[in-house]
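Intended use. Records such as the DNA-binding protein entry shown here are meant for training and evaluating sequence-to-structure methods. They are not intended to support clinical decisions.
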Amino acid sequence: MSKADESLDLCSLKTFAELSGVSVEEVADWAATGTIPTLKLADFRMVNLARLRADLTKGKAEFKEGDYAHG
């Protein structure tokens, strides 16, 4: 992965909402219910774009509550 690609591994819930065309509240709900892959960085919940891209590349087409439950 190039240096430019490394900066695309995580994004804020707000940025993901803007890129996806949905509300921040909806993305926050997806994150809370484990529908999208996230991780906590300091006090912030971030969308794990690297994992999302990897799963999409492997053919994942449906995202359901609990798919990415965080412990």
